[in-house]
Amino acid sequence: MAHRVAVLALDGVYPFELGIPRRVFGTLPERYEVSTCTADGGPVRTSADFTIAVEHGAELLATADTVVIPPYDCALVGEEPPAGTAAALARIRPGARIVSICTGAYALAAAGLLDGRPATTHWRETDRFRRLYPHVQLDPGVLFVDDGDILTSAGAASGVDVCLHLVRTDHGTETANHVARCCVVPPWRDGGQAQYIEQPVPPVAAASTAATRAWALARLDQPLALDELAGHAGMSLRTFARRFRDEVGMSPGRWLIRQRVERARQLLEAGDLPVERIAAEVGFATSASLRQHLHAAIGVSPQAYRRTFQARERADR
After folding, report:
1. Which DSSP symbol is given to 82?
2. What is the pLDDT of residue 300?
3. How far is it, in rounded angstroms, from Cα 250 to Cα 255?
4. What region holds the HTH araC/xylS-type domain (predicted)?
């Protein structure tokens, strides 16, 4: 049976984010069934110059395995969530996974679902959100927060990130990469990545580190020292490090570790290569180093990750 995803469109919903769950999960119709509802089954206005009509009311939420709350324009509805939100959320069955995108976190917080829990929303909403919901452990500097049964994400494109993260969690890296290719988006941006970068676009005359990043990804099994990367980019060490951080939002060393961990996860999912071989394939000096970095990233050992993924694959089959 397909995993049932219900998307709750609230008054003032942003059309772009409303379409994200269908675009991402709908790429796998054999695995996800995506339906949209409103609190009362009637049309709702959007943040744009049109309204939307749906086929379902909040009763749909009682049957969902995952519920997604897209953002809504707070300027249209005021500080309180739209009418009927609390009653709609109360229909979500125990054990269902709940996801908010951007200001959708306000609806969850108002219902008390985020009290004492880590969460995020758009960084511009930080002061207002903290004033209204001081009991939420808000982190405005990340793309999304996965707290198990409740996930919250930042603005706009981070909704794509959190939905891809769920596909990856449910069905592995290869499937998530397939969905990302179909959607023509990056396959993976870690939830802990910064929401915004101070200088995201370099000056027109400035060289980019993109070619060097692609070059490095093809050579993850090699040491790849910083001076070697800078040399490939034709920059001084200081210029390269500064330009890299401006474009990517993290240091070259931290970025390399993340890419190596990601590649290791793919290899763990794809077959039965020994951990020592995988460590060598992705550029970690020892299997102990791989274990350390994988545990820091996802909290489990390589063997435990492989067992969990393979058990999930058997269950899917």
Report:
1. P
2. 85
3. 6
4. 210-308
